[in-house]
Request: fold
Amino acid sequence: MKQLIIFLAFCLLTATAYGQDERFEQGNQHYSNGDFQSAIDTYEGILSTGVESGALYFNLGNAYYKNGELANAILNYERALLLKPHDKDVKYNLELAYSQTTDKIESVDVFFLSKWVADFRNKTTSDTWAYLGIACFVLTLIMAGIFFFSKSVFLRKGSFYLGIGLLIGTMITLTFSYRQKTKLMVRKHAIVFDPSLTVKSSPDASGTEIFILHEGTKVEVLSSLGQWKEIQIADGTVGWVEENSITKI
Reply:
């Protein structure tokens, strides 16, 4: 009976995966035929089942872009980039989409070393960094074994210094993995979906109008109060907007 249950579960998972793959190909076919709305409906249907991937979000972003829905295109490109931070095609299409938004906001200068570290961390995914961290840790243990049990002075010295380097590598790669995973789990950024959005000085409709944002602009969500969100734009300016005017990445 147990084997039968396992077999049936396997068949169900296989059939589900096949159906999702089949729908993905159907969406791609709709896109190739220029039927972008049908492609959107197909891709969104797959997402509604709880399945997500960088390729799925990327293709959905392309379909929205071709359909003239810039905010939705940017939203899905950003989601694709979270899952595939090293993908050049996603980055290129996202930059292209952002170049067509109304708001051109200058970003706050970032210390070059911090930017270099972030760019290096984004070379791959959380899982890959985790695998590298585990590999470094295992090698660290091997070096420790050589240091404690080898009678050769040369091997003891070499394993000591190499072990220190691998231990540092373990800490760095696992930190990178944690940061990448946090980006996936804690979505702090959002995309403006209103054609014209007035940002207030306080979480109230009667608050002072500070500035106006437009569709497709990326913001960081700092806090919430009821139906209001405190946001910050790339230049560091902070204000409040209604929750239904933005969509979290």
Observations:
- Confidence is low (pLDDT under 50) at residues 2-18.
- The longest helix spans residues 153-185.
- Strands lie at 189-192, 196-200, 209-214, 218-225, 228-232, 238-242, 246-248.
- Residues 112-185 form one domain.
